[in-house]
Amino acid sequence: MKDDPSRVATGANASPSAPPAESNSSLPGPSDASSVALSAGGALVLYDGVCPLCSRAVRFILPRDPKGVFRFASLESPLGRELLRSRDLPADADTMVLLESDRTSLRSDAVLRILARMRFPWRLFAAFIIVPRPIRDAIYRAIARRRYRLLGGPLTSCPVPPPRYRDRFLG
Predict the structure, then answer these.
(1) Nearest to 19 by CA among 86, 91, 89, 117
(2) pLDDT one-digit tens code per residue, 35-69
(3) Contact, 146 vs 134, CB < 8 A?
(4) Angle between helix 78-86 and helix 30-38 axes, rounded to 10 deg
(5) Which whole-number Å values give the CA distances from 23 to 28, 31, 36, 80, in the listed order?
(6) C-alpha angle with apex 102: 121 to 75, nearest 5 degrees?
(7) Which end of the chain is less enclosed by CB atoms within 10 A, N or C?
(8) Is there a domain that residue 103 lies in?
């Protein structure tokens, strides 16, 4: 696989990583939770939990995903940190990450892949995938650099999701 900063090999092509620490709890661990999220065509969105833009993006996705394809975890959560480590992504990542069973997408690739799996008319925006990634990611980074000026400073805590969506949040 060509070295692509927006896509990281998983599964058989992934680099070996340390096994997760064993837990004495009978509750499912982070790896179990991510397996459930990625089974049956699901996807897991990792987002910056202190970023107001990312939190708004999650609130945008939820009602537009009636089949519940997407599950969510903040990058700062134990599950988020474990998944970043297992996919060889930097621990200090502060970008949208989409984990699917066969791929990991970052930045504009993640956003467009999410839009592609949403209901009409939002899936039409996925056509922007034809724009070269360096251009799309430059726009993504420009917005990300200004996110706190546009929407206020970092959140002091992750917003609590409405009760009907709480089962879609992991970690």
Answers:
(1) 86
(2) 655 666 789 999 988 878 888 899 999 999 988 99
(3) no
(4) 70
(5) 9, 11, 18, 17
(6) 75
(7) N
(8) yes
Burial of 127 from C-beta contacts in 10 A (0-12 / 13-18 / 19+): exposed
| Predicted pLDDT of residue 93 | 80
Q: Where are the alpha helices (DSSP H) in the chain?
A: 30-38, 52-61, 78-86, 107-116, 133-151
Question: Which residue range(s) make up the domain with 40?
Answer: 29-159
- The pLDDT value given to residue 101: 85
CATH number for position 35: 3.40.30
Q: Considering the domain boundaries, does residue 70 fall inside one?
A: yes
Instruction: Say if CB 72 and CB 47 are below 8 A apart.
Output: yes
Of residues 54 and 155, more confidently modeled: 54
Q: Phi and psi (nearest 5°) for 161?
A: -75, 155
Task: Report the C-alpha gap between 21 and 76 in whole angstroms.
Answer: 18
Lowest mean pLDDT among 17-31, 69-83, 129-143: 17-31
Total domains in the fold of the chain:
1
